[in-house]
Amino acid sequence: MRDVFIIGVGQTPVGEHWDLGLRELGASAIDAALKDAGVESVDALYVGNMLSGSVNGQENLATLLADAAGLLPAEAFKIEAACASGGAAVRAAALAVAAGAHDVAVAVGIEKMTDGLASTVSAGLATASDQDYEASHGFSFVALSALMMRRYMHEHGRSREEFAPFAVNAHQNAVGNENAMFREPISTEDFGRSPIVASPIGVLDAAPVCDGAAAVVVCSRERLGADHEAVRIAASAAATDTIALGPRGDILTLESARHSAQRCFAATGFKPEQMDLFEAHDAFTIITALSLEACGFAPRGEALRMAENGCIASGGCIPLSTAGGLKARGHPVGASGTYQIVEASLQLRGRAGANQLAKAGRALTQSVGGHGSIAVSHILEA
Amino acid sequence: MKAAREVGIAGYGAYVPRYRVLTETISSTWRPRGAAAAAVAEKSVPGPDEDVVTMAIEAARVAVGRAGFDPGAIGAVWVGSESKPYAVKPSATIVAEAVGIAPAVVAADMEFACKAGSEAMQAAVAFVGAGMVDGALAIGMDTAQSKPGDALEYTAGCGGAAFLFAASDESLATVEASVSHVTDTPDFFRREGAAYPEHGGRFTGEPSYFRHSLAASRRLLAEVGAEPGDFAHAVFHQPVPKFVTRIAAELGFDAQQIEAGLLAPRMGNAYAGSSLLGLAAILDIARPGERVFFCSYGSGAGSDAFAFRVTERIRARREGPGVVDYLARRREIDDYGHYLRLQRKIRRS
Amino acid sequence: MQLPRFHRLRSAYYHLEGQACSACGAVQFPARRSCLACRSEELERRPLSGRGTVFSYSEAVAGFEGFAPPHLMALIELEEGPMVAAQLSDVEPEEIEIGMEVEMVTRRIRELAPQGYIVYGYRFRPRLEVEAGR
User: Fold this and answer.
1) 3-class SS at A382?
2) Is residue C134's pLDDT more than 70?
3) Could you confirm whether A219 is annotated as catalytic?
């Protein structure tokens, strides 16, 4: 397989874009990424998106965006992998280039959630779970995560307040990200007081419903230009677990996350402690904790201790979600995995602005869908 | 009436939801303070996920389980109710499927106001008695309907029971005989599409409940050649407790005979489930050899009366929850708005 | 309209029908093509007892359209082994705890529309206390 490089990134601010639809958001992010890469056309477009059918009434989304972004007649497909769609789209683009099918491809992650009522969005998100045995019994995305969090608290003797550092860290990091949705810091007390959504999950455990699009342009080594600030995709891997929570042997081990991260580590020879940052899938604080444990940053049951020790802050042993993460940058579901890769690329290029880490040579990004039924991981290298 | 072959009850099961509302909670919204106290102090209310089908399934499972009967050998299922979840679509097929009785089975819903459950019992006795089926399940179950603020709202409760009828040599109580008495008496009705029933006030008493219950009861006593004193227990339809005490007295039953089956004071009137639930409560405590007198009443109007004789098998057929167990798990709904929601009286579209 | 879907699911929804593996003895719910434990395809239909304990739970503030509150969500560990996601009935949120003994009941799970099809299926409630020696 050929080496693949990220040569351009683009993103829209994350938030409630009442005046922008799927085509405007998508075209805007793609255009920004192409400009950043200095290319005018691409061979293929891969769109990571989850809800365009159920919330926006629009399928054949990749064609819509290829058309809107002026990429015709490029090949274009939508990649759907629940909340991991954005990561999966980047992987699809990387695979196409690595395989030699294309030389330059763009991946865009996009979600336009504010077109739907909360009930429509919630029902749409629940289609990531097992419709017959979870969603049809009233289990929302939040409720399934709440079951994992309650069990985690029970097995490890933790309180809900002890999950606060993940949310506090995310909000702190979003202050310096002009594209983030929530740029106000929160305190541990704010976290403790936040209203319950599905016990024990409170509003401040959870990432918000919002709109956004992020794009990356990837190319082969042959197409790298001298003036490209290229980031190498050192590894890319996806893995799955049972669609429903019930049949998993251990609901507190994200097997999909563990497998996909392990494959990335195995492919590169790196160890978790050699990563300079981790863009984690912090849709809920419990998922952050489980991701840290699944990827080998913390032993089972120890993620909260890591967070308490300041290990997840900039300057800590593994800086987490340095642009605010899903929690505070915002979680336009199918776009989040692409935002993670955009943000990690900017860190590795030294262009992360106020949030720039002193040392940023290697990053792990991981996007998790369907409360752990699918995970897509990437290791990027400067 | 007597079947060609001896028939009896092989298994029975009851159901009463967990929720209760004090009638005080209803009167605080509708009646001036100082108004006369309601006929019952509290009544049962269905949970948010319950209806006649779910309640019938639970009672039927207990009945079939207690009988030790292979569900596949049951040849008929009838659900008598006036609060079926569907206007068109049988409740009985859902019950039959959920209890494992489908598909080789006769199934339908019966409608005869509060007599729908005992109508199902008559049909079950006939099917088994004629030798057409080995087992027939008769269910009377209601989540009783009433207009908000109407006199009925103070008593309309919910619950019911299921009885599996089979040949008498398998039964915990044999059917001695049954009778029916019906006339065209418009004391209470609900038109198609209407949410709540209409009733004739005091017309529901003397010319309706009493006339039909008395006629059926007296005919049954004559048919089996017995006196009220020959029965250990008697149960009647229970619109309000004082109707039951009055009819028992008129027929010559004493307070002790009606005690076990009189549930209305604790849960209101379960309409098509009312007299069947009383019968289940009696079977929960009856001793072998005792005779049980049963008389239902349904508006429109008619009564079914049955005479049963309890057998030795009763002792081994009471596993699982009895009526007292259902009545003991009691959660009070202390808010009229919440009560209206549980009764599905609030329209959301 | 999802009538055919719920029709297909009635064995699972009404009887909690899972499978027992003839090769390794594992019991699983819902039914699938092969044994999750040993991958054998020698599987027998097995309605489960419906008895189990609460493995985890959550009270959700809001539910989807067609679901009546309260939304008491739980993972139930069945006595045969499988774990099933289901709502709890006949219980107050403050009474729920991990390890609580529950039993299956068949209830209204959801309505597909305000006057639409009613989906019946499994939910769980605290085991009914039965008076001893009646």
Assistant:
1) coil
2) no
3) no
Domains in chain C, CATH or no CATH each: 3-11+49-126 (2.40.50)
pLDDT for B32: 83
Residue where a domain terminates, one of A196, A231, A266:
A231
* A chain contacts of residue C61, beta-carbon cutoff 8 Å: 195-198
Would you state the pLDDT for residue B348? Answer: 77
Q: What is the pLDDT of residues A237-256, one digit of tens each?
A: 999 999 999 999 899 999 99
- A131 to chain C: closest CA residue: C5
- The minimal CB distance from C89 to the residues B47, B324, B349 is found for B47
Task: With beta carbons under 8 A apart, name residues in chain C contacting B328.
Answer: 129, 131
Picking from A343, A88, A128, the residue whose alpha carbon sits closest to that of residue A214 is: A343
Which domain does B206 fall in, by range? Answer: 175-313
Is A25 in a helix, a strand, or coil?
A: helix
The domain in which residue A227 lies consists of 4-117+209-231
Measured CA to CA, the distance from residue C121 to residue C106 in angstroms comes to 5
Prior bond to A73 cis, omega within 30?
yes
Same-domain status, B210 and B161? no
Which residue in the set C15, C129, C131 is minimally distant from B100, CB to CB?
Answer: C15
The residues in C 34-93 lying below 8 A from A, measured between CB atoms, are: 36, 55-65, 67, 71, 73-75, 82-87, 93
Cis status, amide bond into C70, omega within 30 of 0:
yes
Q: Find where tokens 């202050």 sit.
A: A175
Q: Do A143 and C71 touch (CB under 8 A)?
A: yes
Question: Is residue B140 within 8 Å of residue B118, measured between CB atoms?
Answer: yes
pLDDT value at residue C51? 98
Q: How far apart are CA B51 and CA B47, in angstroms?
A: 8
Q: Within the 71-110 window of chain B, which residues sit less than 8 Å (CB to CB) from chain C?
A: 85-86, 94, 97-98, 100
- Using CA coordinates, name the residue in chain B closest to C124: B49
Task: State which amino acid sits at residue B225.
Answer: G
Which chain C residues have a beta carbon less than 8 Å from that of A119? Answer: 64-65
Sign of CA dihedral B117, B121, B124, B126: negative
**Judgement on whether residues B56 and B163 belong to the same structural domain of the protein:** yes
Q: Could you tell me the strand order of the sheet in which C43-47 lies? A: C27-28, C17-21, C43-47
For residues C105 and C124, the answer to whether their CB atoms sit within 8 Å is: yes
pLDDT (tens digit per residue) in A325-359: 999 999 999 999 999 999 999 999 999 999 999 99
Is B199 a residue of the active site? no
Q: What was the pLDDT predicted at B343?
A: 93
Which residues lie across from A233 on neighbouring strands?
Answer: A380
| Model pLDDT, residue B33 | 80
Residues A103, A168 share a domain: no
Active-site residue, selected from the candidate residues B119, B170, B237, B290:
B237
- Top residue of B19, B20, B49 to mutate, by most chain C CBs within 10 Å, is B49
**Closest-approach residue (CA) in chain A for C37:** A249
What ipTM was predicted for this assembly? 0.97
Tell me the C-alpha to C-alpha distance, in Å, between residue A316 and each of A188, A216, A321, A357. 19, 28, 12, 10
Work out the mean pLDDT of chain A and round it to a whole number: 97
Q: Residues B114, B153, B181, B295: which is the catalytic one?
A: B114
A positions 68-127 inside 8 Å of C (CB): 118-119, 122-123, 126
Asked if A205 and A163 touch (Cβ cutoff 8 Å), the reply is yes
Distance CA B24, CA B12 (A): 33
